[in-house]
């Protein structure tokens, strides 16, 4: 028997699966492989077949639309009525060896055509959901198994008879010889019964794995077990022993009292299954390397008071030298969990897709020292906090100094994830390296996305580097920033480590910033190097739109649109705020807007504010502004206004530019602390930092 056959799937994404007979219709399906990845069929010939139990009802060509990643087929003839299955065959005109069929299982693509007056009858159209269809699939599969494998029923009957015989044997034991006979060589009668039950379960499993996998319900719950974790574990263990890659849980609500371990090489298919424990906080499922999980619901005790024992799914390597890797989780629902929905530690190459998590004590998705850990197309909602900390998605590390023992998180992705109702941070990385937050949505979280340092108790802190925050939609409030890029701590101008090479681009932000705190804003930068903030749109930020607090070196802020910065106490209410010391970089062409002055006491009063800090060197190109005022200078050093051919022509500072400011001939310097003959300076000779003459 071949248990490694390729599994292909079809997701119905256009049209419905209940159709009136005679209606012309178009259906669109996304083709997927075993791992759930979209299979690209560009340039392939697609042939469609609709069939039922009586034979083929329609044959014709279909097309693959690459932009939508969809196989699209249009039916313009009467194909009869009833339940029909759909099969697509893809071939390559340039490769005679290429041939793939979608789907691998017939129940994966099915439609119901209801009779119409074309058949002299009338039946109303019904609505059917994906969940209902999946339930029908499982029911049909179980019905099929029972029909083609009658041995399973025979084994179940024998098992019941054996249990009955056991009870009679116990009742009738009167002498030692009878006890020995009833034990069958085992130390107790119960042990003998359990042994035989296990043998029967293994025979049932052997009869049930033809082309599908092992049915866990063929394994009995063995006394004194009260939960189903033992039954499921025995099915998984049997699969490992016998080289079978797939274990199936038929649809059922299953009480469990302890963890199930999904062992290496096994895929658990569990659509319409629920593992539940409302009595104690437990870890429900542990996953080893090279495992896959599809379609399970996990319900824990509660999440109101965080309890570290409560975890939905746990993926844990032994240490930094023994990562658990190559894990896939798809289409799971995890809720009412005491601490973590999904937890990883020392994990690599983990892919979570279509996960729904709700009601969590500490975090939806927590990953410690991860390497290429990814979560996509998922929803996380309603997280409690412990000691003020709670997260939607976090890529971080243990708070110990050794990078050998506790590596930094790297190359992780959160893509198209919705996080709502988290009292602390929606998305977070502490000391992430190459971590990417892309196309996510954040609602009702104190902080939207935090790319920050891992601050330790010792002298070593680690910053995040080369991270990307792109295309996210953030609905911020007025109690925390929307996006924070922060290096490791230290003195102003001398951080322990800069956050280097991070990009904040194309985000759409509503709100953010801390009302009443003029050191905050919607996008917040501190202790960074080479950070780019470009193409973001910010509306109704609190106190500042983009704030460069201190110690930001080589920054670029360009192409952003900032509208209606609000404050009731900060009279500047600037769209871009160079707030304090040691900020050196470029502010390019941004749009600074004041649309609704009635929103607060102060609304976008200044397009750009250069604060009164020291050691600032900022080149500014105003761009477009409808603010009350354009640029407010300060008493800081070396501010440059306007560019021509990339060279600053006008500079501003608090002392003589001679020997300090490099500029071309004709440049002007304004000394804010100057007097007669020392306020206005003109560069008359040379191309370096000398040749300045006071006027």
From TrEMBL:
SUPFAM superfamilies, sorted: Pectin lyase-like (SSF51126)
Top-rank taxon: Bacteria
InterPro entries registered for this protein in UniProt: PbH1, Pectin_lyas_fold, Pectin_lyase_fold/virulence
Record protein name field: Right-handed parallel beta-helix repeat-containing protein
Species: Planomicrobium okeanokoites (Planococcus okeanokoites)
């Amino acid at each position: 028997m071949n248990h490694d056959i390729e599994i292909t799937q079809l997701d119905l994404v256009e049209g419905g699966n209940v159709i009136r007979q005679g209606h012309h219709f178009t259906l669109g399906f996304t083709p997927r492989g075993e791992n759930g990845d979209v299979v690209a069929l560009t340039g392939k010939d697609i042939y469609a077949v609709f069939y039922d139990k009586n034979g083929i009802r329609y044959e014709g060509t279909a097309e693959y639309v690459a932009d939508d990643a969809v196989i699209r087929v249009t039916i313009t003839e009467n194909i009869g009525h009833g339940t029909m299955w759909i099969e697509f065959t893809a071939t390559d005109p340039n490769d005679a060896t290429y041939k793939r069929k979608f789907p691998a299982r017939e129940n994966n693509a099915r439609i119901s055509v209801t009779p119409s007056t074309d058949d002299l009858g009338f039946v109303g159209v019904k609505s059917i959901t994906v969940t209902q269809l999946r339930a029908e699939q499982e029911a049909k599969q179980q019905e099929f198994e029972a029909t083609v494998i009658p041995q399973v029923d025979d084994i179940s009957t024998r098992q019941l008879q054996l249990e009955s015989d056991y009870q009679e044997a116990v009742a009738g034991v009167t002498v030692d010889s009878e006890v020995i006979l009833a034990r069958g060589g085992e130390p107790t009668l119960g042990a003998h019964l359990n042994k035989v039950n296990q043998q029967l379960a293994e025979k049932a499993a052997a009869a049930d794995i033809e082309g599908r996998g092992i049915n866990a319900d063929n394994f009995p719950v063995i006394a004194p077990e009260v939960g189903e974790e033992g039954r499921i574990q025995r099915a998984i263990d049997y699969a490992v022993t016998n080289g079978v890659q797939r274990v199936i849980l038929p649809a059922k609500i299953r009480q469990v009292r302890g963890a199930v371990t999904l062992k290496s090489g096994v895929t658990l298919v569990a659509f319409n299954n629920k593992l539940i424990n409302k009595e104690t906080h437990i870890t429900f499922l542990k996953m080893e390397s090279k495992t896959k999980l599809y379609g399970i619901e996990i319900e824990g005790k509660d999440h109101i008071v965080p309890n570290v024992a409560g975890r939905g799914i746990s993926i844990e390597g032994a240490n930094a030298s023994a990562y658990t890797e190559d894990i896939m989780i798809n289409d799971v629902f995890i809720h009412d969990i005491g601490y973590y929905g999904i937890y990883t530690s020392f994990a690599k190459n983990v892919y979570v897709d279509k996960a729904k998590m709700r009601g969590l004590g500490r975090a939806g998705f927590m990953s410690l020292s991860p390497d290429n850990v990814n979560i996509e197309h998922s929803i996380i909602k309603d997280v409690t906090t412990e000691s003020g900390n709670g997260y939607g998605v976090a890529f971080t590390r243990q708070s110990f100094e050794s990078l050998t023992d506790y590596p930094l998180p790297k190359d992780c992705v959160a893509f198209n994830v919705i996080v709502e109702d988290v009292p602390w941070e929606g998305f977070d990385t502490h000391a992430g390296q190459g971590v990417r937050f892309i196309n996510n949505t954040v609602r009702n979280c104190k902080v939207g996305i935090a790319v920050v340092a891992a601050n330790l108790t010792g002298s070593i802190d680690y910053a995040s580097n080369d991270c990307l925050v792109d295309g996210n939609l953030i609905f911020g409030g007025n109690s925390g920033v929307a996006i924070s890029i922060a290096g490791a701590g230290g003195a102003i101008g001398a951080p322990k480590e800069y956050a280097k090479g991070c990009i904040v681009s194309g985000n759409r932000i509503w709100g953010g910033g801390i009302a009443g705190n003029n050191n905050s804003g919607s996008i917040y930068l501190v202790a960074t190097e080479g950070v780019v903030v470009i193409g973001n749109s910010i509306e109704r930020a609190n106190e500042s739109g983009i704030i460069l607090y201190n110690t930001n070196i080589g920054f670029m802020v360009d192409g952003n649109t900032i509208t209606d910065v609000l404050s009731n106490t900060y009279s500047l209410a600037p769209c871009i705020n160079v707030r304090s010391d040691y900020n050196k970089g470029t502010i390019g062409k941004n749009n600074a807007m004041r649309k609704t002055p009635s929103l607060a006491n102060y609304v976008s009063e200044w397009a750009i504010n250069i604060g009164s800090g020291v050691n600032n060197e900022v080149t500014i190109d105003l761009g477009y502004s409808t603010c009350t005022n354009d640029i407010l200078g300060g008493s800081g050093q070396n501010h440059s206004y306007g560019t021509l051919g990339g060279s600053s022509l006008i500079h501003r500072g608090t002392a003589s530019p001679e020997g300090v400011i490099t500029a071309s001939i004709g440049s002007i310097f304004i000394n804010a602390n100057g007097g007669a003959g020392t306020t206005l300076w003109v560069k008359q000779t040379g191309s370096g930092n000398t040749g300045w003459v006071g006027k």
